[in-house]
Amino acid sequence: xxxxxxxxxxxxxxxxLVWGTTFISTKLLLVDFKPVEILFFRFVMxxxxxxxxxxxxxxxxxxxxxxxxxxxxxxxxxMYYLLENIALTYTLASNVGVIISVAPFFTAMLTHLFxxxxxxxxxxxxxxxxxxMAGICLISFNGANGFTLSPVGDLLALAAALIWAxxxxxxxxxxxxxxxxxxxxxxxxxxxxxxxxxxxxLFDFNPDxxxxxxxxxxxxxxxxxxxxSALCFVTWNTAVRVLGAVKTSIYIYMVPVITVVxxxxxxxxxxxxxxAMGILLTLTGLLLSESKFEWKKRSTxxxxxx
Length: 306
Known about the structure:
Blueprint lengths: L1 H18 L2 H8 L5 H19 L11 H24 L4 H8 L2 H12 L8 H19 L9 H25 L5 H22 L12 H29 L1 H5 L5 H12 L6 H18 L16
Helix pairs in contact: 1-10, 2-10, 3-4, 3-9, 3-10, 4-8, 4-9, 5-7, 5-8, 6-8, 7-13, 8-10, 9-10
C-alpha cells in the first residue's frame, strides 16, 4: 500500500514538473498562434497519442457513465483552459496565477459536499493552504505592480479554478468505474475536443499547419501535445485514483515554484529574496497540507487519554 501511495505522489509530482514549465512553450508559440489554436493542436496530438498507446475501444458498463466522461471533458479540457486564457486577456498574469492556485481549496469543498467519507478535511489542510497562498502571492507579485482588481478577468480566473476542482472530483468518480487510466483519459479528451470545436469559429481559428515547419514551433507543440497533455493527464488521473482528489490537487501549489526555477534555468532570471521566501512558504504549505497530523481528542475519564 505504501508503494502504491508513493507511486501516486510521484505521478502528481511528474505532472506538476511538466505543467510548471509549459508557460515557456506556450509563450514561444503565442508569437504566431492564438491560444485556442495551441489548445486544439496540443489536445488533438494528445488524443492521437493515447489512441496509439491503447487502441482498444472502451466499452462502458453503464450508459449513465457517459455523462460523467462528457462533463470531465467539458471541464478539464475545454472550459478550464479557455477560461484561463481569456482571463489573461483581461487581468494580470500574476492575478491569474494566484487565483488559479485556490483550486485545491475548491476541490476540498466539493469533495466534502459530493463525495462524503472520501477524504476528511483536517486543520493542517487549511493551515497549509494559508501558508501556500502567502508564498504564491510573494512569488507572483514579486516585481509586479501588485494585485490590481479586474472584475472580469479575476472572476474568469476564479471560475477556472472552480472548474478544475469539478474536473478533479469527476475524475475521482471515474476512477471508481474500474477502467484503464489511458482509455478513460482518451474518452475525456474526445469530449473535450468535441466541446472545444464550436469555439474555434468564435476565435478565428487558423488551420494552417505550415507554421510547424519552424523547428522551434514543432518541438514546443510536440512537448505540449505528448508531454503536457497525453502523458500528464494520464499521470494526473493516476494520482487522483491513488491519492484522491484533495491530496492530488494540493500539488498545484508547486506550479509557481516550478515556474520560477525554470525561469532561472532557461531564461536566466534571478531569484529575489521575496521569491525565495515565497518558494519556502509554498513548499511548507504543501508539506503541511500533506502531513498526517491530526488533532486528537482527549478523554478525562479515568484520567487517561484515548
